[in-house]
Amino acid sequence: MSRLHPALLYLTIYNPTLHPSEEVSKDDEDAEEQAQILFYSSRERATSRDKMLRQVGLAKALVNFSEIFHPTDSCHNVHSQSRRMIMLNPEPDFWIHAAVELAKTPRTLLPKPKDKGKGNGKGKGREKEKASTLQPSYDYHEGSFHDYALRAHLLRGYEQFKLTHGSFTSILNSFGQEALELQLERFFTVWAWSWDLSKSFELNDDLGLSLHPLYPSILPLLDTFSSQLPAGLDALFLSPPHVVPSTGYRQSNYPPALSRHLLSLIPRHLPHHEADDGLEASSPAEKGATANTAAKEVSSGSNPSSGFLGMPSTLAMSMDVRNWSWPGALTFGKGAEPKSPVTEREGMKPNPSVTESVSTVVEVDRGALGDAISSADIHCLLEKANDGLSVTDPDAAREGRSEMDHSGDTPRPSRVPSPLPADDSSTSPSEPEKPDRHRQLDFACTFVFLPESGNPLETRRRQVIHLRCQTLAVALIADADNVEDYDTHVISEATSQMLHDIENLIAAEATRASEILPSATKILQPKDNYLISFDHFTAASPDFVAKSDYLYNGKQLLEQGLHITEVFSRGQQPQHWHVSKRDNTGEEEREVFLEVARKETSLSDVDNILQRLQSYSF
To answer: Which percentage of the chain shows pLDDT scores above 70?
Structure first.
């Protein structure tokens, strides 16, 4: 029988301390209960008021009952035969409650033997028998998912809402309950029903974002770049699906949702025309590194992003302006080939010589048109138009600038003029082409809500600057309210230099790795996979995805008791070692997760591997 995937039954957010805004009768308890529900969404399109109040009331009763035995540690989840109930308390007096149905398999109903008795069953007994045969029965799978994975996903949803809208408490205190309900409805309705529970959970995503494999080499370049920036800017390097936080970024203790949100705005794959332009200007080593990276992403099954800052990448491919004058490009179904008026009126046959000459001219103009009409030329024309607008009509320019400043949280991509070389005469046509570090950068701004120091519930609107070159980008978290307070020319010049150095570093590492041939022993022997988590970032073995229940169970045990520092487990088939350990020996706390697939490995061998991982420096 086919297995049915787990699914979300309902999601609700409530605050038991809220009261109705209008006066209600003291006997109307349902009005009091309904005023405490800020958001509710169910798989059923129409849910009655009584059913909604019963579901929320059950969650409140479970929390209150558990607080009798543990006043400081309330109920987190409840297991039943067919579902899991998760209760999350992200802010004081605010609760997020979700019910998830387990994966299930329909049972095969065996035919019942015929009743050989004299009389047939009549009345209520027979009606119940018919009702039981009409309702299907299922076998539920208890190990469909892990409690820690569900809680981590709910917490990520809350952190994302807090980053883009503000905390529950700040919205309630500033704008009132009605505004909070509207914001929750807009965000969590889309978020809840885009949650795909059929996909297997990964411990890597629950622990944090992955650091770049060349993190130790990129960090000095990033810190040098940060020292050249004006005060009040913290840098974060983005190369999907990896990040590199600067030392100042980590010291500022930004929430983990910030780096995850900024990474989602950077495309993992480029449009064809951008990729072609980038490859033409790159060296052979950079071409090889780009090809290797793309091959790894395809083999790992990663989903391509929708585009830079949420814009679909297919738009750039389908709207290439260089194709607009081609025959049949913008005909809209009215004919791809223009006909001669003489031929249509008199029914004359076209002259082959004329047709041949016309086609030749079209082919010649097609290449010239592609060189003449490019995105860079169009951008220059737009810049000239903007400059002309600012000179001829200052009021219109001022109005456009104010409209951009108050446009809300929607990021608007633009272009930053790339700095030119100091001396153009130094370059000669006879010299070979080199990677251009003065390439044009994509510039965009967006806004997020970050907590103030000392109070995580008080959030303030902050501006983030994006500077992107192909798939490499830098995000600068600004302390000022306006980007115009900073010198964008200095920032763009320093960013171009740093991205150029990082590209050379990645290309050199790819060349060095391709020259090293692994031995037959390394190829045939199973590799030991590890996952190290610290400060909401992770470093893992190449292509390792932690999905084992042993590692999830170990993580949950480490969270439940501080006296538990390590958990060892070994399966039967296959006989793999799984280790979860908390390391407090260094300057910062780490969590190490290890998977050893070699059968001959003993417990002492596993402990030696852990000792080597603990000495790994970031």
So the answer is: 66
496 burial via Cβ count (<10 Å: 0-12, 13-18, 19+): buried
CA 498 – CA 262 distance, rounded (Å): 19
The structure tokens listed for 14 are 């409530």
Burial class (CB in 10 A: 0-12, 13-18, 19+), 379: middle
Identify the three-state secondary structure at position 443. strand
Q: Could you tell me the end-to-end alpha-carbon distance of the chain, in angstroms, rounded to an integer?
A: 49
pLDDT at 63 over 70: yes
485: tokens are 């307070």
421 cis-preceded (ω within 30 degrees of 0): no
Residue 429 is predicted with a pLDDT of: 43
pTM here is 0.70
pLDDT, residue 436, reads 56
Q: CA 52, CA 45: separation in Å to the nearest integer?
A: 12
By three-state DSSP, how is residue 347 classified? coil
Integer CA distances (angstroms), 519 to 412, 523, 524, 525, 600, in order: 51, 6, 9, 10, 20
Average pLDDT over residues 21-49: 85
Say if CB 19 and CB 33 are below 8 A apart: no
Both structure tokens of 344: 């249509």
Q: How far is CA 127 from CA 54, 133, 404, in A?
A: 29, 10, 68
Residue 79 CA to residue 87 CA, distance in Å, equals 12
Among residues 513, 437, 119, 472, which one has the least CA distance to residue 283?
437
Instruction: Give the whole-angstrom CA distance, residue 294 versus residue 306.
Output: 16
The sheet with strand 590-596 has its strands ordered as: 414-416, 441-452, 455-469, 472-478, 233-239, 242-245, 209-211, 537-540, 529-534, 590-596, 577-583, 566-570
Residue 143 has what pLDDT?
Answer: 81
As a whole number of angstroms, the distance between CA 416 and CA 476 comes to 15
Q: In the 8-state DSSP scheme, what is residue 543?
A: T
Give just the sign of the alpha carbon dihedral 308, 313, 317, 321: negative
